[in-house]
Amino acid sequence: MNNKLTLIATSAMGLEAIVGKEVKDLGYECKVENGKVTFEADALAICRSNLWLRTADRIKIKVGEFHAKTFDELFEKTKALNWGDYLPVNAEFPVIGKSVKSTLASVPDCQGIVKKAVVEKLKTHYKTTGWFDEDGPLFRIEVALLKDVATITIDASGTGLHKRGFRIDQGGAPIKETLAAALVLLTRWTPDRPFVDPFCGSGTIPMEAALIGQNIAPGFNREFASEKWHWIGKEKWDLARQEVEEKAKYDQPLDIQAADIDHRMIRIAEDNAEEAGLRELINFKQMQVKDFTTTKEFGVIVGNPPYGERLGEKRAVEQMYKEMGQAFAPLDTWSIYMLTSHEGFEDFYGKPATKKRKLFNGFIKTDFYQYWSNVRPPRNKD
Questions:
Q1: Cα 367-59-356 angle, rounded to 5 deg
Q2: What is the pairing mode between strands 140-146 and 95-100?
Q3: Segment-wise mean pLDDT, segments of 10 residues, the chain, 382 residues
Q4: Phi and psi of 19, rounded to 5°?
Q5: What are phi and psi of 117, to 5 degrees?
Q6: CA 36, CA 17: separation in Å to the nearest integer?
Q7: Is residue 48 a contact partner of residue 240, using CB atoms and an 8 Å limit?
Q8: What's the rounded Cα separation, in Å, for the pair 69 and 157?
Q9: How far is the first Cα of the chain from the last one, in angstroms, to the nearest whole number?
Q10: Number of C-beta neighbours around residue 88 at 10 A
């Protein structure tokens, strides 16, 4: 196996720069493009990036990239790749695909041809003429065509990285963990400051804040498809998981408060936090946002409030935005961040945002409204 691999961390639209910063923080130079961050690294990086990247969707290995306008071309160029370096003789290798603005528009045909090409190459590599049983570790192959360029990858994550492995229940429409982590990272919150989520729902945002605050890797509690790959090996995974343990700051005190109007959601959020081992770090409370008061200073409020997208909800949501603006008005040392698709948010909140950032919550186009405090915290004497 070649020591240098090309890895791709896929990203939701609008989060690419944050994923890129995370990859750099792991020590890898990278290239940020639409929907993905590409970097050259070794096999250990597969373990580390799966465990540590909070805002990426998946980690993929790029096996090859080439022009393909005909099925013949797709077959031959796929077959020319070194599949024997990656796939053992018993590999399970389903093929998925997508095609955008390409001559080869039929995705099922492209998938079938790539599968056939891989089979032919493996037959030569393993000197066999029979069928492959495919009863071993999973190597999910993807053929992605964009403007007649085919990119062939293997998925090293398995289940998407937003699945942290400890959500018991989620209630209504939960925010994805990857987006929640991005919202927290965008605030530049530090663990020595108070953190509040007044619309916590099933607890996703405060739980991501707790993981960030104690530098706990988001993948610490789950398994990945590539853990069973022979050419990475148990040793590298053990090494990466050991690093996760060593870097965690379990004794870092945190002041995280999570509230919701619905007592059932508070119960669900508490159960989820308990399952993740974060229950002691978060103070949950049933409360309406208009009742929020605090004597603390220099905190950060992050919320994903109702958007009022459903018929009949809009008026109530606008009233709530108004009350929120009034409740938060005295907090001149606090910075406030709200994600919503409601385009009139600033009018109802009663104040224009310092900055807005376009983000997608699932398929909903939203803005992240940022209200920065202009009062600087006192310098630490030490």
A1: 10
A2: parallel
A3: 86 96 97 96 97 98 97 98 96 97 96 97 93 94 97 97 82 85 97 97 96 97 95 96 97 98 95 94 97 97 92 90 98 97 96 96 95 83 50
A4: -60, -45
A5: -65, -40
A6: 9
A7: yes
A8: 30
A9: 50
A10: 16
